[in-house]
Design goal:
4 helices, 107 residues, alpha+beta, disordered N terminus, 12% strand, globular, single chain
């Protein structure tokens, strides 16, 4: 990711595009970009100090907790992996839902 990443480059992207972009540069993803991706996909964060906490749309108490480290512009690699895993889970749920709708329509 470069410093020139803007909001307009992420809005309207499909889940697969987010995953590909994050995997391609998982070691150098900027914190601000990762937080914007999470906000776009999962909604607004609850912010407590340096922690940005995003709730997941599935049952239980899952969440992604991104922590911005003072003086560091990149997200931590494990945070990027957590976001990728959540995006994959969301993608699977969307695909399952689409298959269910398609089967419902065929009957």
């Amino acid at each position: 990711m470069t410093d020139g990443t803007t909001c307009s480059t992420i809005y309207g992207m499909r889940t697969e595009e987010y995953i590909e972009k994050l995997e391609a540069s998982s070691a150098s993803v900027r914190f601000d970009y990762l937080a914007r991706v999470c906000q776009e996909v999962f909604g607004n964060a609850r912010i407590r100090g340096s922690h940005h906490i995003f709730r997941m749309p599935w049952p239980g108490d899952p969440r992604i907790n991104l922590q911005k480290v003072k003086g560091q512009s990149n997200a931590k690699p494990y945070q990027v992996k957590q976001v990728i895993a959540a995006l994959r889970k969301m993608q699977e749920a969307e695909e399952t839902e689409k298959r269910g709708e398609a089967q419902h329509v065929e009957k």
